[in-house]
Amino acid sequence: MKKSIVSLAMLATIAVLISCNKNKSDSAANANVSVTPVLPDATAEYFSDNGNVGGEVDILNKKATLGRVLFYDNHLSLNNATACASCHHQALAFSDNAAFSRGFENKQTARNTPPIQNLLGTSLKLFTVNGKLAGASSLFWDGRENNLQDLIMRPVSNHVEMGMEQLADLPAKLAELPYYNKLFKDAYGSESVTLDRISESIGLFIGSIKSQGSRFDQFMAGKTQLTALENYGFTLFNTKYPCGNCHHVSMPGGYGGMGSGSEFMDIGLDIVSADKGRAAITGNAADNGRFKIPNLHNIALTAPYMHDGRFNTLGEVIDHYSAGIQNTANLNDELKDVNGKAMRMNISTEEKAALIAFLQTMTDNDMITDPKFSDPFKTN
Fold first, then answer.
1. SS3 284
2. Sequential DSSP letters for 336-363
3. Which of 37, 137, 259, 380 could form a disulfide with 376 if both were Cys (CB 3.0 to 4.6 A apart)?
4. Which domains occur in the chain, in start order?
5. pLDDT above 60 (res 14)
């Protein structure tokens, strides 16, 4: 009996050591320490002359190239374990496949990670607010930012996401990495690393991520036809059901969000919303439960859905609109019936299949496989 107890204790000790070594190994693997990014010989074309961009196109492309490396670099986090790309995966339209993403210490974020696409609108024209890159619309689920540069620094400095609360320490940290010397010099004329340069270059990179190559885009351009089922879903989306009232085809990237003149809506998720949404920013009780209307490009890739990732599939989202809308205090008029109550759409099984088929036409395989948006630290 005594020998068995000793054996069990030894096994437990070995298991702990293996676990510790595995965690250290995983941490080292995540840190991409001493790994040099693999970039093409020529700077990729993120912006072109026919896009009416402000500034010299060659320089913008070099800045976006720098931004790509920074976007994928784990050194932007406090412990070198998390990059912007840790929560924004190219194959998922730069979203995450978890309800809540994991930060630099494996803590969960408070909201679902939204996709990154069409943030500068459908044209390639850049415009600024107070000298910084402006977004095509409000950013984040609650719209607390409207320029890409400030958006970038929020997750970098967030105590859960990337942990660099002392942002002033970041430039010196990155300057020690040898691969940034040439990248900063090419983009800015000197090797100097500054917060403004970091945020601008990442902003240009993510601003260049456009979703314009889906079958839906080709259909809208008259270059292809939808199947009978997809066309049925398209008709349902824009006529029988009020989907198109809030997801307008004319908005940036096609089917962006602007319901009743607002980018934010209460769609009847909860009678009492644990997350105040837009109201946390405005302080207006009329904004309780309102969240940014998402762009539907690549919607089939960005599950789970809603600000809290409560719906795992497009079918569950449609079920909500079919029979699950709650009579919330700020429910948008588009989702009310003639009596001012929560609408019951009673979407049939056939209609549900058609709507899903239509939404799947918005998948842009070009964007999610484009090498210029890929991880430069991967060698295979």
1. coil
2. B-TTSSBP-----HHHHHHHHHHHHTT-
3. 37
4. 45-211 (1.10.760.10), 215-363 (1.10.760.10)
5. no
Long-range residue pairs from 238-242, CB within 8 A, at least 24 positions apart, any chain: 240/351, 241/321, 241/345, 241/347, 241/355, 242/334, 242/335, 242/343
The number of beta carbons lying within 10 Å of the beta carbon of residue 282 is 17
Q: Is the pLDDT of residue 128 over 90?
A: no
State the DSSP H helix or E strand holding residue 230, giving kind and residue range, or none if neither.
helix 228-235
* In contact, 133 and 119? CB cutoff 8 Å: no
For 132, 181, 335, the CA distances from 204, given in Å and listed in that order, are 11, 19, 37
State the greatest distance between any 2 C-alpha atoms of the chain, in Å, as a whole number.
Answer: 81
User: Span 365-377, mean pLDDT?
Assistant: 96
Angle at 30 between CA 25 and CA 35, to 5 degrees: 105
Q: Is residue 183 within a helix (H) or strand (E), and if so which, with residue range? A: helix 180-188
- Mean pLDDT of all residues in 105-119: 92
Task: For 31-77, write each residue's pLDDT tens digit.
Answer: 455 588 999 888 889 988 755 555 688 999 999 999 999 999 999 99
H or E element in which residue 195 lies: helix 195-207
Higher pLDDT, 11 or 307: 307
Q: Are 296 and 255 in contact (CB under 8 A)?
A: yes
List beta partners, residue 129: 132
Query: Is the CB of residue 146 less than 8 Å from the CB of residue 134?
Result: yes
Residue 132 is predicted with a pLDDT of 66
H-helix segments, 31-179: 57-72, 148-157, 170-175
Report which of 97, 94, 108 is spatially closest to residue 161, judged by C-alpha positions.
108
| pLDDT confidence of residue 11 | 42
